[in-house]
User: What shape does this take?
Amino acid sequence: MKQQAFKERLPVLVLNRSFQPLSICQVRRAIILILEGKAELIENGIGYIQTVSTSFPLPTVIKLDYMVKHPKRRSKLTRLGVFRRDNYVCQYCGNESLNLTIDHIIPRHQGGGHVWENVTSACPRCNHRKAGRTPDEANMKLIRKPCEPVNYGGFYLPHRYTRGFPIWQKYLPGSN
Assistant: This one.
């Protein structure tokens, strides 16, 4: 019984009718959507759930049978947004960490703005080493030039799901 309750809370990737990622729901909600004819099972990578009379495949990915429209919005510049864009990797040394800081590539006191193209993720050690200088002045190189992330209709994949569900990768933007 305890294991079945655990299975009901597993995450399921929800796709729009056009196969664009919309959200993440729990298995229980996904099965209800499938049984009501509002969604179809796309991937079953977890196994089955047994009821008294039948068993249901546990969905990993479902697709809605109707289109959900999202307005196109520009991405708001936030600390978390910068970390997401940079995949929680320091853009100077390449170390992956949840303990990151924001670095202004051209320091604000030198005229650098607080815009997507001028901020990047840095570990505290690299940020301290760079201090109030430009990367050239500090003799440091950026791994990747920063830019504004593409906003996919407001879909956000929480960091805890980025590695644990490889079957989702073919449905996520930028992973092909």
In short: Helices lie at 2-8, 27-35, 79-85, 124-130.
